[in-house]
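Q: Hi! First time doing this. I have a protein sequence and I read that you can turn it into a structure. Is that right? Here it is:
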Amino acid sequence: MDRIVVSTVVYRSPEEVFPYLESFTQYPRYTEHLRSVTERGRGAVGPRYDLTLTWWKLSYTAHSEVVDISPPDSLEWRLLKDIDAEGEWRVEPEPESAPPDEETASRIYFEATYDPHSADEDALSLPRFVSLSWVVRKVQPRLLAEAKRIVTRLVADIEGESRDVELTVHESP
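A: Yes, that's right. Below is the predicted 3D structure, encoded as structure tokens:
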């Protein structure tokens, strides 16, 4: 299993941050390759989503569900088919990191654990002469950059303006 964990500080309380994390339908604003998110009902704990991703000549719709939600601290998700993947958004109060002109701060964590070799080759319509292993080799290095992009854009949305965001990479594939 590979794992990505990134975090950063946002100048808001966990209660102010959490609604942005659970608003999956807004995620296409944060990422380069996620084209749309459609909510499609509720699972045992939370909503299920269809996430349509595009990259290069490929398009794929991932099916996910929220498996645990503990506002304002944690939201856990997993993919339902085609690849073994799960993750979590976590928010921890960190008021000591607030600059003098801000009231408080929190640290947001994005974590994803996945097995790239569990991908179902039949789930993708690959171009002729393109193997799934080639796609995995090309996509995997881009995942960390995409996680960083998501967190940076999310902070701008939460705070209402862009700023230089210091990202901490705790783990990467």
